[in-house]
Amino acid sequence: MSGPAPIPMEVVARIRSDFPTKFGIPRQSGLVEALRSTVVFEPPYRDPEALRGLEGFSHIWLIWQFSGAVREGWSPTVRPPRLGGNVRMGVFATRSPFRPNPIGLSSVKLEEIRLHTPQGPVLVVSGADLMDGTPILDIKPYLPYGDCHPEASAGFAGPDGGAVLEVVIPPELEALVPPDKREALRGVLSHDPRPPYQHDPERVYGMAFAGRDVRFSVEGEVLTVQEVLPLP
Question: Which of 49, 97, 158, 188 is the most buried (most CB within 10 A)?
Answer without folding.
Answer: 188
